[in-house]
Every structure is written in structure tokens, then in C-alpha cells.
Amino acid sequence: xxxGYRIRLRQDPxxxxxxxxxxxxxxxxxxxxxxWCVRDTELAQTLLRDPEYHTGGSVFFGELLPARGAQVELxxxxxxxxxxxxxxxxxxxxxxxxxxxxxxxxxxxxxxLVHRCLADVLLHPGTPGAARELLxxxxxxxxxVRSPHVGRRARAELVRARLVTALAEEAHRRRRQPAGEPRDxxxxxxxxxxxxxxxxxxxxxxxxxxxxxxxxxxxAALAWSVLLACLHLRGAAPWPWPVDHVVREAxxxxxVPWMLGRTLPHTVELGGTAFPAxxxxxxxxxxxxxxxxxxxxxxxFRPERWAGSGGHGPYVPFGTGPFSCAGAAVAHTLLTExxxxxxxxxxxxxxGGDTRAAMSExxxxxxxxxxxTTDHPSAHDTGGR
Length: 385
Ligand code: HEM
Hints:
Blueprint lengths: L2 H9 L1 H11 L4 E3 L5 E3 L2 H9 L18 H17 L1 H13 L4 E4 L1 H15 L6 H12 L9 H27 L8 H8 L7 H34 L9 H11 L6 E4 L4 E3 L2 E3 L4 E4 L1 H5 L38 H16 L2 E6 L5 E3 L3 E3 L2 E7 L2 H4 L5
Parallel strand pairs: 2-7
Antiparallel strand pairs: 1-2, 3-11, 4-7, 5-6, 8-11, 9-10
Bound molecules: protoporphyrin IX containing FE.
The site of protoporphyrin IX containing FE has 27 residues, from α4, α10 and α13.
């Protein structure tokens, strides 16, 4: 890839893809970093509906869990666990929000908040402390959400390696003392992966992958929701919108997975062009969510657009088709619960943030400080960050 593109991509991936789209006259454009992106909304929708496009298997699970039946089973099991855990998540929120203090540095603070509330469903409290502590470090030190900074990524790699070892040991221990009903995500992974087919280490890798697949988009979408709403209001005012509309609009305006791609298992014909097997063909949710032919004022952050039932264009923050997100509904609940706790009896304002995305696996906001002023200032300020 040319250096200019690499720099632009790092500076602002969404602006970069938008610029490429503006400069292209074709329905499908070549990406300078490899592969193709369908820039025309109608063609993108046709592709996403085409069963042929989805015959290559789940990109999400890849080689970690190849059997489709097991993938579906695991997705459902984890979704069920998270759903059943919502009351505990909700109950954990006031303390996690209080621990933020009056000024917290995001997006990292949001990741810590989400982890704190999910910790027990990821690894239940009876798990040896070392594994839970490593999972906490993974959430705090750039394993759950990949840092855009190279130095931090190297440090995260060390935590990751120690975590995989600890999870593999725990998987081994649990296989000797199987639980009845799954108590946490590791039990769910173990229930899907028989010992004869999958080593303890492979189970640990899968648990880590699921941990990141939950933590990264939920944390990023929470941070975007907070940032965009506060930037829009410009002042510590109570939010005039239902949190549900804020979440929907944040996921429209800054969809966390910004490219949904498939390596074609065989030739796919689209818009009169044949794309051969082996090509990477992607759809960009960000472009779909900003098509002015389908969305009113697409560049404006307007939660109120979700007040009515109509007037919405193509909306795919969780993908679509056979491999769409197994946890979409519960992810939405975790986000609205978190925002309810953050905004309850409090005014929010931000400093230092802007709407440009930083490049990670998905879109993450650049660092900003959240100032949270409660109606009872003494009650909830622990000075934590
Ligand atoms: C805001 C939060 C989330 C976002 C934006 C998100 C987004 C996505 C997207 C776009 C895909 C499809 C990728 C593709 O088409 O290749 C996906 C797949 C998946 N997501 Fe999520 N996700 C979120 C949270 C969660 C949660 C909480 C779970 C927990 C159950 C989860 C589980 C999965 C699974 C299992 C798949 C793979 C589906 C399959 O291949 O069968 N996600 N997610």
C-alpha cells in the first residue's frame, strides 16, 4: 500500500474510505490495502442477500472452530448466558460508574466499566484468582481492545500469552470436574468443544476470541455513544433522547466493524463484473449508513431520527445474513443499561474528543475525558480513572 494511503488510513479510516468512494465511478472499488469494496448501496444489499456470497464459512470463527453446527451452538450459548446475566450486569453498574469518578479517560475507562460488569459471566467467581486477574489485566491493558499504539500492543501480547496459558490450565481442570449447567463463558466453550476434538489450548484461544469479540465492540460502541451525544449537546445538559435512540444512532454514525468482508469461495458476479474465487469482497457499513439517497442528513448525529418507525436507510452495524451477530440484541441491552447508569442523576460533558475514528480492528474513538457531575457530588466520586 502506498505510504500516503497508509497515513490517511491511520489518521482517519472512515474519511479515507469515503474519499476513495468519492473518487470512484464504479459500483465496486478496489481498496489500496487489498481486496474490493462495494460502494454502491443497492449492489451492497444485493450482495449481502446473495446466499452464494456466504458459502465460504464464518470469518468470525475462522479456523478456531470450523464446524458450523458448533459455531451456531456456541454463539447461542454465549448469547443465552449474557442475556441471563443482564440483572447482574445492571446491579454491578452503579459501582462501576462510581469508580469512574468525576473525570475519566475514555475509551479505556469504558472498557474497564464493561469488563467490571461482565467479569463474573466471563469467568465465574469460583475460578482461581490468577485467571480472573489475568482477564482483568487483558481488559485493562489492550488485549480486549487492541491499542492503536505499537508499544502498547507489544505489552498486551505478553498479557495475552499468560492469559492463554492460565485459561488452558483452567480448561484442563474443568474437564476433570465438569459442571452441569454452564456457569460462565468458559463452561459454554467447553460444552461446545469435546476434549477429543479440541485441545485445552485451543479452547483457551476460543475463549479469548469470544472475550475480545464481546468486549471490543461493546466498549467501542459505548464510548462512541457517550462521545457523540456529548459533542452534540456541547454542555453538561441532561440528554433529551432515550438512550436506546442514542445507541442506535451511534452505531449508525460510527459502526464499529467498518468492513464486512468475505474471501470468495468461488466466482461471484456483481454489477456485471465477475469476481474470481480467492478475492476479498467487502461491504462497508459506514458507507451504507451515510448514503444521502437513503438517509436524511446522514452526517448529522441525530438520535431523534429513531423516534419514528420509518425513514431509515440500510442499517447493518451487526452485519446481516447467515453470519450476522449472534449477540446483537443482548449487546444493545448492555449498551442501553450502561448509558442509563451513566446518565442517571448526572450530567455528562466531554473534553478533548473529536468524531474521527482511530484505527483498531474496528472503529474506536480517539481519547477523550468524560466529566460526569452527579446531582449528589459527594456520593459517587471515588476519584478512580
Ligand atoms: C456492539 C456490540 C457488537 C457489535 C457491533 C457486533 C458486530 C458483529 C458483526 C458485524 C458480526 C458479523 C461479522 C461478519 O458478517 O462477518 C458479528 C458476528 C458475531 N458476533 Fe457480534 N457484535 C457485537 C457484540 C456481540 C456480543 C455481545 C456477542 C455475544 C454473544 C457477539 C457474538 C457474535 C458472534 C458469535 C458472531 C459470529 C456469528 C457467526 O459467524 O455465526 N457479538 N458481530
